[in-house]
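Translate structure to sequence.
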């Protein structure tokens, strides 16, 4: 049976399943309750027990990645060129594992941002960019812009992921940066991943 496992790099630090927790974007890398100012990109990320609930990061907080420009990011060390050398796998927002009992190849894999209910709908009042580490790209992809009607699992509005050869486990490292378009908690804001395998 095929399964997806969403993980964050935190606590000891090591990769841990998000499981029933919530991935929280914050205005602080030490306080998940610190709001992000409208028009400003996140400067923190956390694992919350609810929305956001209590901080469940453990000893080390979830790494955060901030959008600076199309080809640059900041993860607390100042602006850097976005590439696989400067942004390592363990500095990414998420690791998504796709496993199957048999050895399968993946194609048409994609990561998208949506309203949490309908895959084709954008997340509400949020702008977001994503990047796949390990595929030699050097630019962010905009995966949500609610005011611009961008987002959801639609062509040109999602992050294409690298096709992978036959294996029982496939790994995708994804960096994400987000900012609110209005004041208030964003509850219609979620992520999805889809692919074809054979």
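Result:
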């Amino acid at each position: 049976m095929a399964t997806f496992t969403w993980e964050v790099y935190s606590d000891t630090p090591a990769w841990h399943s998000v499981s029933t927790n919530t991935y929280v974007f914050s205005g602080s890398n030490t306080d998940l309750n610190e709001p992000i100012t409208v028009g400003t990109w996140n400067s923190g990320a956390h694992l919350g027990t609810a929305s956001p609930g209590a901080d469940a990061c453990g000893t080390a907080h979830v790494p955060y990645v901030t959008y600076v420009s199309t080809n640059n990011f900041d993860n607390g060390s100042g602006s850097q060129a976005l590439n696989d050398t400067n942004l390592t796998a363990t500095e990414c927002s998420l690791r998504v594992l796709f496993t199957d009992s048999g050895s399968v190849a993946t194609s048409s894999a994609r990561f998208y941002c949506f309203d949490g209910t309908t895959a084709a709908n954008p997340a509400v009042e949020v702008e977001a960019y994503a990047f796949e580490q390990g595929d030699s790209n050097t630019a962010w992809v905009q995966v949500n812009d609610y005011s611009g009607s961008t987002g959801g699992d639609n062509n040109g509005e999602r992050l294409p992921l690298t096709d992978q050869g036959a294996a029982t486990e496939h790994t995708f490292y994804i960096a994400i940066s987000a900012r609110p378009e209005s004041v208030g908690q964003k509850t219609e804001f979620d992520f999805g991943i889809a692919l074809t395998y054979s």
